[in-house]
Amino acid sequence: PLVSGSRSSKTFKPKKNIPEGSHQYELLKHAEATLGSGNLRQAVMLPEGEDLNEWIAVNTVDFFNQINMLYGTITEFCTEASCPVMSAGPRYEYHWADGTNIKKPIKCSAPKYIDYLMTWVQDQLDDETLFPSKIGVPFPKNFMSVAKTILKRLFRVYAHIYHQHFDSVMRLQEEAHLNTSFKHFIFFVQEFNLIDRRELAPLQELIEKLGSKDR
């Protein structure tokens, strides 16, 4: 359950929903239906006759919303005091830069980093020139690289939750939810080769474990 009144309700506002009746909404419904079958490898495949950019866009919005909710359940445990740096275990530390407002990477606490990150992603998702919601509006030429950057950054939130807050996730009995969401995310980025292997290193063991159960 989401904790009302914590800052998650203010900061982590979900992306505007994919409009009902739209083609993207149909795609989302298709994704949910195939997920229900339990075969995640199959669920992430591009449905026949569909546009790859559109499939990636719909799923990126969905992962953003999932991570938003998952992080929202543990924001009270992710504080300036508990997480003064944005890390994924002792070997990986992330510094924030978005290339426009903050050009030189800054060291900041995990809650601040994740706030920057989620706000940045939301701005991209709300940009009609990047993520067109109207039928027939073409995706921009740089769509793939934008989507890859978004997914690479969203991965860091999973990595932080797993490394620094998994005990809280267990106490809240959210681990099945987190694992399913992360597994879906990983199978998706593997299917379309969207995140560089080096970037996935902080959760490499977990990724191998999740993959080996499905061969």
TrEMBL record:
<dbReference type="InterPro" id="IPR036703">
    <property type="entry name" value="MOB_kinase_act_sf"/>
</dbReference>
<feature type="binding site">
    <location>
        <position position="83"/>
    </location>
    <ligand>
        <name>Zn(2+)</name>
    </ligand>
</feature>
<feature type="binding site">
    <location>
        <position position="78"/>
    </location>
    <ligand>
        <name>Zn(2+)</name>
    </ligand>
</feature>
<keyword id="KW-0862">Zinc</keyword>
<dbReference type="InterPro" id="IPR005301">
    <property type="entry name" value="MOB_kinase_act_fam"/>
</dbReference>
<feature type="binding site">
    <location>
        <position position="165"/>
    </location>
    <ligand>
        <name>Zn(2+)</name>
    </ligand>
</feature>
<protein>
    <submittedName>
        <fullName>MOB1A kinase</fullName>
    </submittedName>
</protein>
<keyword id="KW-0479">Metal-binding</keyword>
<keyword id="KW-0808">Transferase</keyword>
<keyword id="KW-0418">Kinase</keyword>
<feature type="binding site">
    <location>
        <position position="160"/>
    </location>
    <ligand>
        <name>Zn(2+)</name>
    </ligand>
</feature>
<dbReference type="Pfam" id="PF03637">
    <property type="entry name" value="Mob1_phocein"/>
</dbReference>
<dbReference type="GO" id="GO:0016301">
    <property type="term" value="F:kinase activity"/>
</dbReference>
